[in-house]
Every structure is written in structure tokens, then in C-alpha cells.
Amino acid sequence: MASDLRSLIEKTENLSIDPVYDTNWCDMPAEIKLECIGKMELNERLLLRCTAKAERSLVDSQKVEFHFGRFRGYYEGFSFLLYSDNENFCKHLYDKSETIGLINYIKNVGVFENLEISFGNLFADNEQFATDDGLFTAKNIEFEECDISTMISVLKKMKEGVESIKMNVGIEVFEKFAEILSISHIQNAKYWHIKDYQETDSLYKIAQVGLN
């Protein structure tokens, strides 16, 4: 029994085992950090972004795929609802600057199958939101109860590849119709739906865009 134990110890000592990192996070090479970040949930990534500039850069370089995302603004604040393979993320914020910061992060790293925007008029006159040049990435996008100027701003912040656009907006869409038609995503989308829209002249213009 003792000889068997000694033999097992000798075999174990001679095994070739990859090194285990027994060190602080800050001492790890970037490629190991990136591998760890890829396995983190969104909440963990957000916390890591706050630790140092280098960590923020690493976190921001990693894309996240979402089946569904909803950004909803309301009088008291703002809510985020995101679904991916690994987690469901839900967050409520009440500070507009903090809200825009999180929107910009998710916008830059998120790749959405379906994205729903319901900002109301929360960002209608917000220069920080209007001037940010980051782009949303989504295959299908739907606007629900969204200020028309904000909706146009979001459409202009979309990357190419949008296949479906739904607009559940009010009568104010008539006033900006020419500007909406000029947006490339509107012209190139396979499907464009405007809820309860009955202006014959404008519908004729839509048909012309499709034919062209």
C-alpha cells in the first residue's frame, strides 16, 4: 500500500500540467482577461468597467449578442430589459446622464436580433444623446411611444443590416415624413410598418421608394 502511494506521488509530480494563475487580476495578461470577460454576465462587466481605464477598454471590446432588448423611458426614469443565451438583464435608472452612459455602452457592444425603443420624449432635447456618434446594431427594430425627433436620431444611429422597422408613433410623423424617407435604413429595409397610418399621398411616396 505504501509503495503504491509513493508510486502515485511520483507519477503526479512528473505530470505536465498547465500553470494556474495565482496572481492579482491586474497582473494577468490581456488575453486571459479577455477570455474571462467573455464568460462574465453583463452586471459583472459593468462593474469591471468602473475599475480602471484599461479594463474599460477591454470590456468595451467584447460584443454581446442579445435575442431581445427593450429600452423604455418614462416620467420617473428609465428601464433596460435584455435577453441573451446566458442571462436576463433588468435595470432601472433615475439619473439621465447615467442612463445615457449605459445606453451608449450597450449600444456599442450589443448585437440585437430584436430591439424595442420606447423613449417617449425623454431625450427630445438632450444634446448628449443627439450628438453621440455610436451606432446600434439590430436586425429588427420597433419604436413604441417615441418622440419623432428621437426616433429619427436612433434610425440614423443604426448600423447597416436592419431588415425590419416598425413605428407605432403619433400623428407628428406626418411633419417629418420627407426626412424619414431619406434615411437609408428606411429605403433598404425589407419590411417597414407604420401603425394606423392612412395618409394616401405619403403612402404613395413609400410605394415609390420601394419601386426605386
TrEMBL record:
Pfam families linked: F-box
F-box domain segment(s): 25-65
Superkingdom field: Eukaryota
Xref: InterPro entries: F-box_dom, She-1-like
Protein name from the UniProt record: F-box domain-containing protein
